[in-house]
Amino acid sequence: MAFDTLLSGNKRFVAGAPEHPNQDAARRTELAPGQNPFAVVLGCSDSRLAAEIIFDQGLGDLFVIRTAGHVLGSEVLGSVEYATSVLGARLVVVLGHDSCGAVAAARAAVDEGFSARGFVRDVVERVTPSVLAARAAGLTSDSDIVDEHIRHTVDLLLDRSRLLSEQVEAGEVAVVGLGYQLTEGSARVVTSRGDVMGGDEAGS
Q: What is the pLDDT of residue 197?
């Protein structure tokens, strides 16, 4: 299963025993005519959060979209929909992490009235609803706020993309939110929608 493949790869990464699959010349040649990724990963742009490395995957395995704070815009939604409806990916992952700068900036904006400059402000404004929702629920720790932002992003994906929500309802696609720990290198489930453990075999 796609999710099992990701978890197995992450376990290898945590253990310091990656296999580096699908990274040779033969794989490169095989993929030249087209791609068939088994999962979409919408992750934060943080340089410590390279999906292919932390899940020990290779060329053609993951369709990766990265924005600061994994914030959503129309181009991100279109990219996710393309991966599931055209390329056939059956798992969508929202990948957040601890010590997220975008979440910290949004928290500072709420707590101290901090105002970011330039287009960074747009990123902060898109993360701020997650901080406010966490506060309304009585959550104050950094990890709890990060988890709330991951949940919020998953909900927003399904709220804004009718195509994706229909695919989830039909059992064709599953969505999972993962929280990554920078020091340990491990990814844990924060939230999920659809049959995360079911679906097609990875790469099929």
A: 80
> Distance (Å, rounded) from C-alpha 9 to C-alpha 25?
21
| 94 phi and psi angles, rounded to 5 deg | -100, 120
**DSSP run (H or E) holding 97:** strand 91-97
Question: Is pLDDT above 80 for 203?
Answer: no
Strands 91-97 and 62-67, by their bridges, are unpaired
Q: In what order do the strands lie in the sheet with 174-180?
A: 62-67, 39-44, 91-97, 174-180, 187-193
Number of H helices, E strands in the chain: 8, 5
pTM, rounded to two decimals: 0.92
Q: Is 118 exposed, middle or buried (0-12, 13-18, 19+ CB in 10 A)?
A: exposed
Q: Determine the Cα–Cα distance for residues 80 and 84; give it in Å rounded to an integer.
A: 6
